[in-house]
Amino acid sequence: MNFQEALNFYQNQRKKMLAMRYVNFLSGWDMQTEAASGSIEADSEQMSVLAEYDYELTSDERFAQAVDTLFAQKDQLDEVLRHEIEVAKKVIEQTLKIPKEQYAEFSALTSKAYAVYVQAKNENNFELFRPYLEKIVEYNRNLTQWLKTDELQGYDVLLDRFEPHYTMAQYDEFFALLREKLVPVIRKLPTESQAKDPDWATQLFYKEGQHKFCEYLRDVMCFDKTRGIMKESEHPFTSGFGTDDVRITNHYYEKCFVSSLFSAIHETGHALYEQQCDKSLNQTLSGGGASLGMHESQSRFYENMIGRSEAFWQVHYKHLQQQFPVQLRRVSLKQFVDYINTAKRSFVRTEADELTYSLHIMLRYEIEKKLIDGSLEVKDLPAYWNEKFNEYFGIVPPTDTLGVLQDVHWAGGDFGYFPTYALGSAIAAQLFHAMNADFDVFASLEEGTTAKINAWLGEHVHKYGASKYPDEILRLATGEDFNPNYYVEYLLKKYK
Amino acid sequence: MNFQEALNFYQNQRKKMLAMRYVNFLSGWDMQTEAASGSIEADSEQMSVLAEYDYELTSDERFAQAVDTLFAQKDQLDEVLRHEIEVAKKVIEQTLKIPKEQYAEFSALTSKAYAVYVQAKNENNFELFRPYLEKIVEYNRNLTQWLKTDELQGYDVLLDRFEPHYTMAQYDEFFALLREKLVPVIRKLPTESQAKDPDWATQLFYKEGQHKFCEYLRDVMCFDKTRGIMKESEHPFTSGFGTDDVRITNHYYEKCFVSSLFSAIHETGHALYEQQCDKSLNQTLSGGGASLGMHESQSRFYENMIGRSEAFWQVHYKHLQQQFPVQLRRVSLKQFVDYINTAKRSFVRTEADELTYSLHIMLRYEIEKKLIDGSLEVKDLPAYWNEKFNEYFGIVPPTDTLGVLQDVHWAGGDFGYFPTYALGSAIAAQLFHAMNADFDVFASLEEGTTAKINAWLGEHVHKYGASKYPDEILRLATGEDFNPNYYVEYLLKKYK
């Protein structure tokens, strides 16, 4: 296969891979937002048949050959394709290093583990899940052996799969800073039972009204409605295909109306990243976000830095009051902004506020590190979780359901995923700092939309899609490497 | 390839073909009911990439070999597979007979023709569309040469592609009967402008109310909501995958409320056919309806024989009145039933009533026959259309938009499709007659649902899916061959 043949083959195969991305997106969207419950099984069966086709495309030997050929002459490729080929080569090499049989066993294991995990969580029964988690940990320990390189060993191997170029060196420093600066602050916060919601916040806010205001927020954020839609689902998420089909969902709790507002802002943040990628990337495998952490940085930037700011609500709170005149008549802007920035010590990560969130991640990071290096065993996990939780939060989860069993990620086999969440928050703060050096971000909100912010992120982050590594994009956007100090400064200033 | 190898290959390939059926259904559904306007282009591109995969599956030489091998030993196959292999062999043979280049040219032609047709219709400009239609007719004339066999020549070749085993011999007899018995009756009907809608029927019936009543109708017809959904779209349609994912759409006109009611009944009729197929057919290519005509017979049976009957509304009209108490307070059951059975002479097929509908089809059948045998040329078509229309309806379309340009089918390249619509109506009447011999159909409606009717159709028609030819199913269900007399008798009795 010569260079031109390799290029043709690669481009042709890539088209098919993109088509399968579309199908995977569409089917997932349909099953989560549309299909009747009794349709899911038959529809899923078809997707498992197509997964074989998907696998054939990526595991095709000629594809590997084409990538090899192009990699050997990568100086002749344009920048986007060069990056794509480097990434593809790495993925292919890693895939070849994983013994096929054990990979298949692991897939079967995680399929089963999910149902067991759900039962274990519902019944507060860690022992039920324990044998599955032990095997999952063992597989991940094996992964670190199979995939190790001169540069990456141990837990770093796993971290790199979810957030390339971020290793324990960075994370350790990052979390040490959080431990030093945030833990003392957080231990003084009220607990959930001490910090009750004000009565006005738990009134009935009818769903249609919430939906309407979320559409307003989406317009404020300049979501392009001709290239995307908003719908309901059990849990909010963003999905889509390329820049031109971007879909978000929301969920409305009538007794907790702020939930849908911040989900709308969060998911629209993800959506803007997708919509603002350079359109030329639609023809490549380099569309979409650069990494999990980078994607999360965008959703959290809009949700927290912008969406929870007083500057934002100074412009938009009156519209929220108009939507819910009875419920919010006597609630001042200050009361509202204070409420949406309440910090407290709570057990569940997904319900945590902006200040405490990253400590929940730190706990998981430290546990994963120990599970992978063998200094902690699964059987000792619940006790260790509670001990560490007490150390950081000064409270002990009353059940494993509210403790070690609360997250689904490990049941899915994913180790190394959690840290990207905290990374996202810290990157958001670093971008916020750089953006403020260019223009007064809060002042720009007076215009009524986030257009100026969108433009900055579009130019400095979004347009690159996944055509560069996330650390490289961060450097281009902010002029420096990852620096968690901005994040800690931001939090301490806000929650002083 | 020995018998067992052929069987394995066939079954494996069939799985992939089924998965592609799912994808095609899903993408079509999404584009017609969900995706934002600006997403359609990118999504469609992916489907055109996947169409290549679809084509690879069906045109795979090993697939043809497997079908040949199985066909040669078809006595060893079970009944369903034997039928499937017979059909597959015929399709493969036909495909091989069509010169590839001309097939590709034709595909490109019809893609372009659609847009031109829409413009021609909007501008009442037949000449714009004429060169395209001439090429489409020429291709169809060529098709009859390429695909002719000892049994099928000329227009019969095309008819057989849409409704196997129904030829000009049957259709000529059928339409001769309609011409003789119905034309004299229809020529005495009032025209559209003479038969105005009563004032109560054109009041505002708000959309949500219509939607709610359509859901009621769907329940009356026992549509299984755990295995299907109902949504809105520009034009009502039924779509889905297998028995377990069946979807229907509706469209609500606030100034013409009966439209959505009968669309709901019509589409649910299609849906019941799909939902009541034998589940074992889900693993095969023999699920779904036996043919276009057979499918249409089900939707029209429920819509016309049942849905427009006094017996049906004797049970359900009070619920409709409850849904629209202001609008229908002074409208009696008799007034309502008379209104929904009004017959009049009108120009447009899709808006025609039960009595006049088949004459619109007869006109198209006769024109297609002449276009294919060469006794009519496209340039003479508008004049011929109007002349014939006047002969049957005693009125002349004021424009080609309301005449020869009203239907999209020819622009799509389809000749031989139209007759299946009339066939469906006639088959519905034949089934109605046979059903009444087993039990009193109208009396069964007193139970409040169509359960007994569904059960009869499930047992005599639906369960077979496409595992038999439609004429065979009709024979099994009614004990005789296609007999259009039941249809004419039914119409003349109802509209005497």
Structural class of chain A: mainly alpha
- Mean pLDDT across the residues of chain A is 96
Question: Uncertain spans of chain A, ≥5 residues at pLDDT below 50?
Answer: none
Q: What distance lies between the first and last C-alpha atoms of chain A, to the nearest angstrom? A: 63 Å
Largest sheet of chain A: 3 strands, mixed
Give the largest interface. A-B, 35 and 35 residues
Instruction: Give the helix proportion of chain A (percent range).
Output: 55-70%
Q: Total number of helical segments of chain A? A: 22
- Oligomer state of the chains in this structure: homodimer
| Rg of chain A computed from alpha carbons, rounded to a whole number of angstroms | 23 Å
Describe the structure.
- The structure is a homodimer of 496-residue chains.
- Chain A is mostly helical.
- The first copy, chain A, has 22 helices and 3 strands.
- In chain A, strands 1-3-2 form a 3-stranded mixed beta sheet, with helices on both faces.
- In chain A, strand 2 and strand 3 form a beta hairpin.
- The longest helix of chain A has 31 residues, at 3-33.
- The interface between A and B is medium-sized, with 35 and 35 residues.
Describe what is shown at a glance.
The structure is a homodimer of 496-residue chains. Chain A has 496 residues and is mainly α.
